[in-house]
Write a structure and sequence with these properties.
- By secondary structure, the chain is mainly alpha-helical.
- The protein is 37% helix and 3% strand.
- The protein is built from four helices and two strands.
- It has a two-stranded parallel sheet.
- It is elongated.
- The termini are far apart.
């Protein structure tokens, strides 16, 4: 019969496969059990050797925003002026300017809702402070 192996050939092929697998995978499998890197015990600092450090956490600095004294024209305001509006930080101010440059002037104050990050709730807080001239 063609395509069949004798018992001796099958055993030899199996042992050869195990030997090859051992050569290839042996170092990978045995690596975790190898010798540990040398540690110089004289350089270790134990808890009693270290000076006591008292960690003091100061409260985060609060930045007070100045409220706008009049309505802000969203078509002409720069980033600093936009940041005086409630709920507008540097990221949203830059998004407003980018939107204005990309799509042109705002036709009305409600056009600000097209800017990513300004939803209905934020717009309701801004509406008394903005205008589009």
């Amino acid at each position: 019969m063609k395509g069949t192996y004798t018992r001796r050939e099958a055993i030899v092929a199996g042992l050869f496969g195990v030997a090859v697998a051992g050569i290839v995978w042996g170092p990978v499998i045995l690596r975790p059990f190898g010798s540990a890197p040398a540690i110089d015990l004289r350089t270790l600092q134990f808890q009693q050797d270290r000076p006591a450090v008292q960690a003091r956490l100061s409260p985060p600095a609060r930045v007070t925003k100045t409220k706008p004294t009049s309505r802000v024209d969203i078509n002409h305001a720069d980033a600093v002026t936009l940041q005086t509006l409630p709920g507008i930080g540097p990221t949203l101010a830059q998004r407003i300017i980018t939107h204005r440059k990309g799509y042109g002037r705002f036709t009305g104050a409600d056009g600000l809702r097209e800017v990513e990050g300004i939803g209905l709730r934020r717009f309701e807080k801004l509406e008394p402070w903005i205008e589009a001239r």
